[in-house]
Each structure stands twice: as structure tokens, then as C-alpha cells.
């Protein structure tokens, strides 16, 4: 066999295991998340790193259910949830060393959830030594999900059995690009450098929900995402899904994404030319 021929990748989970994973997430959404939607109040939510970083019983109970189910299905895997890391930060570092890890964001977009906005989701990422190999982005409100692994394209599926491949946008010139930038999570000095650059793009905003930001990127509704807060439960699944929908996802300095990276900016874009235009446009962020 010629060395130039590509070596087929084996999926990290079998088709049956992926179905079981999706079913587990859907059960957790029905049992622990949706019953509290528009019933939990802001006063009942706790805070973590700041006044807008909220956590509720839906987060805690959904993560516990998902962690139990995943550990039963994959007894030798490392299971890491966002809320568990909040209690024990050392768990985050263990992901990059694990041969197989599952990273859980039980309710991504908790601020939206608490304030009654139907813009939140469940994120599951599977990693090998910190490298994403499978991503799942589930919308509990519509009960549909985007899933991809490194051996198959990204596709949107729904409860009634429909499934279709999805694709990123065609990108374009800077003046035509729309995307999500986590501007208000940047330190003030970075905001001051980046703010003048935003006016040259078509539109920049944020949904306060990485799950839906990556879903829309993978479906071609926007052209890019840029984030400097590198929580793996927010990004690992979306990076893989972006790539398997035809996009490019790398650190702004050109490195491949890995959960071990804790500093820098992650830029995901619809194609290579668009990624390079945006990288050059935001090169000031590489000065830090």
C-alpha cells in the first residue's frame, strides 16, 4: 500500500455507543433540566466566579445523572463535568493526560436558562489525551442535536429520526463576516484594542451560550467564533464539530486546539482563507 494513501480513522465510539450517549443526554434533559426551565428564579441560582456566572440545581442534577450514566457505559474513562471542576479544579488538568475522557457541560448558557431564554444546551465532548474526537451539542428545548466524530461529518438529528449533514458558510471578506466574539470576557486592555476592529466586520455579538454559537457556526448561519476563555466544556465539542462541518478551528497563534491549553484565543472559521483574514485582523491579541 502506498504511504500517500490516507489511513481511515476509526470512530471513538461505535454507532450503538453514540446512540446510547444521545439517549442518555436526552433523558437527562427531560428529567433534570426542562422541569426547572422558567421555574427556577435568579434568587435561587448560586454564583461561581462572578455575579453572572450562575449555577442551578438543573446544572448539578443533570451533571450527576450524566456522569453516572457515562461511568456505567465507559467504566475506564475519565468523566469530568463543569460543576465538578468548580469544586476540584485539578480535574481539568487530568483531561489532557487521559486516554479517553468525557467532558460534560450540563447546562451551557445557565444565565439564559435562569432568565427564561430558550437558548441553552447540553455539551458532551470526548477527548483522547486532550484532543477532541467526538462532539455532541444538544438543544433540550427543540430536542435535536448536532453530533460528529473524527471519522464522520457533522450532522443535525432530531427525535423523530431525521438526520442531515450540515456545512459551514462560504466565509468571505472581512466586511461581510458575521460572528461571535466574547468581547466582555476580555480584560479591559484587550477590549480597548479589539473594539475599533469590530466596526470593520458585518456583525459581532454573543449568545451567552457556546452550545448554540457552535451549532450556528456549523450550520453556516455565522462565519466565525473567537474566544479567550478556554474552558474545555465550552469548546472541545464545538471545535471538533466545526472541523467536521468543513471549518477550521485553531488557536490564534496557529496551534492545534487541545484541552491542555489554558491561555490564548481560539478562532474557529468557515474555511482557511477566512481564518487567515480574521487571524491577521485580530493579530493585536497575539501581543499578550
Brief write-up:
The chain is α+β, with helices and mostly antiparallel strands. The chain has nine helices and 14 strands.
What's the helix and strand layout?
Blueprint: H1 15-33, E1 46-47, E2 54-55, H2 57-73, E3 78-81, H3 82-87, H4 90-95, E4 101-108, H5 110-114, E5 121-128, E6 131-139, E7 144-149, E8 152-158, E9 163-165, E10 178-181, H6 188-198, E11 203-205, H7 210-218, E12 224-227, H8 232-244, E13 248-251, E14 266-269, H9 272-281
Parallel strand pairs: 3-4, 10-11, 10-12
Antiparallel strand pairs: 1-2, 4-5, 5-6, 6-7, 7-8, 8-9, 12-14, 13-14
Protein name: Inositol-1-monophosphatase
Cofactor: Mg(2+)
Binding site for Mg(2+): 82, 105, 108, 234
What does this 3D model show about the protein?
GO terms for molecular function: inositol monophosphate 1-phosphatase activity; metal ion binding. Its EC number is 3.1.3.25. InterPro entries: Inositol_monoP_metal-BS, Inositol_monophosphatase-like, Inositol_monophosphatase_CS. It is an enzyme of class 3 (hydrolase). Its cofactor is Mg(2+). This protein is an alpha+beta fold. It folds into two domains: 15-165, 2-Layer Sandwich (Fructose-1,6-Bisphosphatase, Chain A, domain 1); 174-287, 3-Layer(aba) Sandwich (D-Maltodextrin-Binding Protein, domain 2), CATH 3.40.190. It is built from nine helices and 14 strands. The protein has helices spanning 15-33, 57-73, 82-87, 90-95, 110-114, 188-198, 210-218, 232-244, 272-281; strands at 46-47, 54-55, 78-81, 101-108, 121-128, 131-139, 144-149, 152-158, 163-165, 178-181, 203-205, 224-227, 248-251, 266-269. The strands form three sheets. A seven-stranded mixed sheet has the order 3-4-5-6-7-8-9, sandwiched between helices. It has a five-stranded mixed sheet with strand order 11-10-12-14-13, sandwiched between helices. β8 and β9 (163-165) form a beta hairpin. α1 (15-33) packs antiparallel against α2. The protein is globular and about 45 Å long. The termini are far apart. The relative contact order is 0.13. Mean pLDDT is 94; it is low at 1-8.
Amino acid at each position: 500500500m502506498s504511504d500517500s494513501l490516507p489511513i481511515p480513522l476509526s470512530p471513538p465510539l461505535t454507532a450503538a455507543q453514540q446512540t446510547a450517549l444521545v439517549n442518555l443526554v436526552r433523558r437527562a434533559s427531560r428529567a433534570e433540566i426542562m422541569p426547572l426551565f422558567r421555574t427556577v428564579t435568579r434568587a435561587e441560582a448560586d454564583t461561581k466566579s462572578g455575579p453572572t456566572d450562575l449555577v442551578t440545581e438543573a446544572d448539578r442534577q443533570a451533571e450527576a445523572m450524566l456522569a453516572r450514566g457515562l461511568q456505567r457505559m465507559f467504566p475506564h474513562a475519565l468523566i469530568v463535568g463543569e460543576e465538578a471542576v468548580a469544586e476540584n479544579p485539578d480535574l481539568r488538568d487530568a483531561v489532557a493526560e487521559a486516554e479517553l475522557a468525557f467532558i460534560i457541560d450540563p447546562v451551557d448558557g445557565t444565565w439564559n436558562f435562569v432568565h427564561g431564554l430558550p437558548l441553552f444546551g447540553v455539551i458532551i465532548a470526548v477527548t483522547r489525551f486532550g484532543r477532541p474526537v467526538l462532539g455532541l451539542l444538544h438543544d433540550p428545548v427543540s430536542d435535536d442535536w448536532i453530533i460528529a466524530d473524527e471519522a464522520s461529518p457533522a450532522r443535525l438529528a432530531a427525535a423523530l429520526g431525521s438526520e442531515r449533514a450540515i456545512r459551514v458558510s462560504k466565509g468571505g471578506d472581512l466586511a461581510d463576516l458575521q460572528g461571535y466574539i466574547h468581547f466582555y470576557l476580555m480584560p479591559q486592555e484587550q477590549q480597548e484594542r479589539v473594539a475599533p476592529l469590530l466596526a470593520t466586520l458585518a456583525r459581532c455579538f454573543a449568545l451567552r451560550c457556546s452550545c448554540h454559537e457552535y451549532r450556528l457556526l456549523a450550520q453556516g448561519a455565522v462565519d466565525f467564533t473567537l474566544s479567550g476563555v478556554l474552558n474545555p466544556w465550552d469548546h472541545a465539542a464545538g471545535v471538533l464539530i466545526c472541523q467536521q462541518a468543513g471549518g477550521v478551528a485553531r488557536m490564534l497563534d496557529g496551534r492545534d486546539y487541545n484541552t491542555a491549553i489554558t491561555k490564548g484565543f481560539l478562532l474557529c472559521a468557515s474555511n482557511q482563507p477566512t481564518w487567515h483574514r480574521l487571524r491577521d485582523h485580530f493579530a493585536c491579541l497575539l501581543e499578550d
